[in-house]
Amino acid sequence: MVQVAILGATGYTAFELIKILLRNPQVKITALTTRQEGSPPIHTIHQSLFGRLDLNCEDLSPAEVCKRAEFVFCCLPHVASMEAVPTLLAGGCKVVDLSADYRLNDPGVYEKWYGHAHSDPGRLGKTVYGLPELWADRIPGQKLIANPGCYTSASILGLAPFLKGGWIEPTGIVIDAKSGVSGAGRTPKLNTLFSECNEGVSAYSVGNKHRHLPEIEQVLSDACGVAVEAIFTPHLVPMDRGIIATIYGRLRKSATDAQLIAAAREFYTGKPFMRVVDHLPSTKDSANTNYCDITVRQARGQAIIVSCLDNLIKGAAGVAVQNFNLMCDFPETTGLIV
């Protein structure tokens, strides 16, 4: 039985994590943290957990967490996570960090995009990026895994077969991505209020200003062995959850739709959560699941890739559990197929 703690248990991602972990007979959730006062029971924050998990959220230090758990999911904000991780590791815990604090290789790049000097720079470039579809062989035996972001997962999983297979050029890539409102987190913000975002779709961080861009380029460059450059434009869509990315890349050689789909299927053979489909996928198809659905078409010398996933599960909590399973020598699908 693995004793598990979740830091930052009040958010949407933590809620999905708890639901998944409750399906794993090898897991016991022993600690939940929050900075809220009064140690509220978790079911008063996520009401559907009433009768399923009898545990209070507490303002515990990382050292106190180490006394209660052997595995920790960090659902803390960027910057806060890197302040906790060194103590957790020193205390003997294994950690999956769901923030961006350990995803980038270069401390200078991190500071540029997140506006804060990294306090644990020695682990940057050494922490395994936890995308099992690309690096399942690197994850077992690790003490710390950097969990991918949601936009990055949709983009990387869509592009990887075609970049690594030499089908498309590594530069001039355009990623047009749209996410549900839960991607902005649970903390209220003006632009995610119902009356502000309902009945409208809006672009943001236009002009390669989104924090996920250096992550997308770094991971794809590492995976494919060539320098990848992309334009990334995210959009907010008035739906609860889901991401759809429509990605454009210049074909390096003539190809039919069938050839490109076949190449993606071969690339993802044996990957249980990748579904390469013939139809054009919708966010509804993968909602509330850990699947990523992709397809591809070609037109006028371009490959047009469509990638869909649930931003809270395959884009966050679900892939975190994939990483947990691999780190703990459980079957990768444990708790994730219902």
Task: Summarize the helices and strands and which ones pair or pack.
Layout: E1 2-7, H1 12-21, E2 27-33, H2 42-45, E3 57-58, H3 62-68, E4 71-74, H4 80-90, E5 94-97, H5 107-114, E6 128-129, H6 132-135, E7 144-146, H7 150-164, E8 173-179, H8 194-197, E9 202-203, H9 212-224, E10 230-236, E11 243-250, H10 257-267, E12 274-276, H11 283-286, E13 292-299, E14 302-309, H12 313-327
Parallel strand pairs: 1-2, 1-4, 2-3, 4-5, 5-7, 6-7, 8-10, 12-13
Antiparallel strand pairs: 8-11, 9-10, 11-14, 13-14
Question: Can you characterise this structure?
Answer:
With about 350 residues, the chain is α/β, with parallel strands linked by helices. It has 2 domains: about 1-150 and about 315-325, NAD(P)-binding Rossmann-like Domain (Rossmann fold, 3-Layer(aba) Sandwich); about 150-310, Dihydrodipicolinate Reductase, domain 2 (2-Layer Sandwich), CATH 3.30.360.10. It contains 12 helices and 14 strands. The protein has helices spanning about 10-20, 40-45, 60-70, 80-90, 105-115, 130-135, 150-165, 195, 210-225, 255-265, 285, 315-325, and strands at about 1-5, 25-35, 55-60, 70-75, 95, 130, 145, 175-180, 200-205, 230-235, 245-250, 275, 290-300, 300-310. Strands 3-2-1-4-5-7-6 form a 7-stranded parallel sheet, sandwiched between helices. Strands 9-10-8-11-14-13-12 form a 7-stranded mixed sheet. The protein starts with a strand and ends in an 11-residue tail after the last helix. The mean pLDDT is about 95.
Structural class by SSE content: alpha/beta
Number of helices: 12
Oligomer: single chain
Helix content: 25-40%
User: What is the string of SSEs from the N terminus onward?
Assistant: EHEHEHEHEHEHEHEHEHEEHEHEEH
Strand content: 15-25%
CATH topology assignment of the largest domain: Dihydrodipicolinate Reductase, domain 2
CATH architecture of the largest domain: 2-Layer Sandwich
CATH class call of the largest domain: Alpha Beta
Q: Order of strands across the widest beta sheet?
A: 3-2-1-4-5-7-6
**Gyration radius, in Å:** 19 Å
Q: Mean pLDDT across all residues, rounded? A: 95
Number of strands: 14
Task: Let me know the CATH homologous superfamily of the largest domain.
Answer: Dihydrodipicolinate Reductase, domain 2
Question: How far is it from the N-terminal to the C-terminal residue, by CA?
Answer: 21 Å
How many domains?
2
> How would you describe the shape?
globular
The description of the largest β-sheet is:
7 strands, parallel
* Poorly predicted ranges: none
